[in-house]
Amino acid sequence: MAERRERHSSSARNINDLPVEVIGHILSHVRCVRLVALACATCRKWRDAVKNHLYKITCPFQVLEPWKWKKYEHTITAVVKQTAYLQELSVINGEIRADSLRVWLKHTRRTLKSFTFLSKTSRGVNILKMLADSKSSVERLEWGDANLPALNLAYCNLPSLVLLTLDGGTRKLSIEEIQLLFSSLLKLENASLINIVGNRAPSRVVFNLSSSLKTLIMKRVSLDRGDAANPIDTTLALCADNLSHFSLMGLSVNELLSVEVEQVKSLQCLIIQDFDIVRLRFAETLQRLVIWNASIKQMESKNLMSLTDLTLFKERDLRAIWPIYKITTQEASTKLRKLRLLGGLPTFAVEDLRTIACRFPKLRWLALYHQDTLFGQSEKKLPMFRQLIDLELYVNNRVTDHEVFAGWILKLLQCCPNLKCMAIKLEHRPSEPWAEEIEFPLKLTSVLRNLIRPYPYVQVRLTTKHPNQLNEIFSRSYWQTCVDMDLHSGNNQSVDFCVDKHYCIWLLVLRVMPAYERP
Predict the structure, then answer these.
(1) In this structure, is residue 116 part of a structural domain?
(2) Which of 408, 464, 407, 404 is CA-nearest to residue 436?
(3) pLDDT given for residue 490 in this prediction
(4) Which of 20-34, 149-163, 374-388 has the lowest mean pLDDT?
């Protein structure tokens, strides 16, 4: 016990011997407001470090009782007041009073560069107005649960704002107010609107974006027609000079929708996700196109000569939309480097695969959904993807036999002589029993070990998602037996595991190495 106490005191002395600048940088990496408050109570040197060299503070998510949260709010205010050069402030939970929020922003108006506020406030609190009134130099603002009051030009007087994220507004904004956000923030480069309701939308919604805006993300945005007349079609049009990335996810409108971005000559990336659209027009400068779970009846895709990345996915009713997808792949540029065709494509045969191989000779990344009918039994001349390096395969292990799937993989390996990496992604269904779900990857692993032996430089990744029972994967005795067998069977195999704690993904990497590369 005495040795432990002496070791602790010596480590404390070593920390106190550090320069005050280093202590401040350490606290900036720690960031937690509670720990910073404890550091302030330690000694004068640590208080000087907080005052002059603390640049970042985070108030992480915590479940507290109301009276404890009020005390926690006072702690945040005390720490913020002790800083002189605070640049980043993040508040993620709780209900903050307007007075405390006003004190924070006023104290840091000259130094604060990034402000993330994902907490609830009383109705009528306008962070944009507070920042404008205090003449803040903030550059990044992320405002969650944003109860936006009526906007005017004075509230948007933030000349240094570069990034703006508005999430969860309960009040309906008019289209003119949304347009005001885009036009008045002259240095805005990245804008995200999430859960915003646009009120009194006309039949043609035109957003004139500032020349500085480069990225625009609209997620779960609703265009409410209100009492206006309801024409047959509603058009969303963008006019911008330097916009390069546009994402439209989960848009909700009362009538049919047409999206026009053909006037945006600088657009390079377009993402359409999770909503129905009648007509899509885009500029000829487009380099990346993602259509994810979106029903499109008409697509003007004559100018796709700059396209290098194409993703097409439809979970349901793919047969009705496949003709448009097929035309898109046929009209895409020969410069295409990355292609993803997912969702169980109907009538997709080896002729289509051969067309893709001939049409896109520079293709280096391909993703496909498993289909037993892709390769015929008597198929002799297979399409060749000579430049392909990465191959991604999706399979439903509930309806697929592992031996049939392994044979399908073998045909694809023969089509890709220069392949370096192959990722096999297993679909997970919540109703599927745990024993049945784990059985398929185990059997497939044993088959793949012999199947890819002639391809010594191909790295195979087998991935799946399972939200529960992650620990059970590694505690099963038969799983450990499988791992030991792969590691010690003498077949030049190595198996590595990696668990992503954020997304609950377990990853099995099966790599075949030559004997001289073995450790």
Answers:
(1) yes
(2) 464
(3) 34
(4) 374-388
**pLDDT at residue 488 in the model:** 30
3-state secondary structure 7-43: HHHHHHHHHHCCCHHHHHHHHHHHCEHHHHHHHHCCC
pLDDT at 52 over 90: no
Give how far Cα 162 sits from Cα of 90, 135, 146, Å: 17, 15, 18
For residue range 134-180, list pLDDT tens digits in order.
888 899 999 887 766 666 666 677 889 999 998 876 566 777 778 88
Per-residue pLDDT averaged across 342-361, rounded? 77
Q: Which helix H or strand E contains 235, and what residues bound it?
A: strand 233-239
Name the band, by pLDDT with cuts 50, 70 and 90, for residue 464: low
Q: Is residue 399 part of a domain?
A: yes
**Strand order of the sheet with strand 173-174?**
173-174, 197-199, 222-223, 252-253
Domain boundary among 80, 110, 125: 125
Question: Is 42 inside any structural domain?
Answer: yes
Phi, psi of 133 (to 5 degrees): -65, -35
Q: In terms of DSSP H, where are the helices of 57-134?
A: 66-82, 98-107, 127-133
Q: How far is C-alpha 289 from the geometric centre of its chain's CA atoms? A: 16
**Number of domains the chain is built from:** 2
Q: How confident is the model at residue 420 (pLDDT cuts 50, 70, 90)?
A: very high
DSSP-assigned letter for residue 95: B
Q: What is the largest CA-CA distance in the chain?
A: 83
DSSP string, 430-463: TTS-HHHHHHHHHHHHHHHHHHTTT-TT-EEEEE
Q: Is residue 436 part of a domain?
A: yes
396-410 burial: b if 16+ Cβ within 10 Å, else e: bbeebebeebbebbb
Measure CA 280 to chain center. Answer: 24
Instruction: Print the domain residue range for 44.
Output: 17-125
Lowest mean pLDDT among 148-157, 337-346, 367-376, 470-479: 470-479
Q: Are 174 and 145 in contact (CB under 8 A)?
A: no
List the one residue out of 15, 12, 17, 86 whose CA is nearest residue 53: 86
> Is residue 339 helix, strand or coil?
strand
Q: Last residue of some domain: 125, 153, 180? A: 125
From residue 304, how far is each of 184, 285, 335, 454, 474 by CA, in Å? Answer: 33, 8, 10, 39, 48
What is the model's pTM? Answer: 0.79
The whole-number pLDDT of residue 194 equals 85
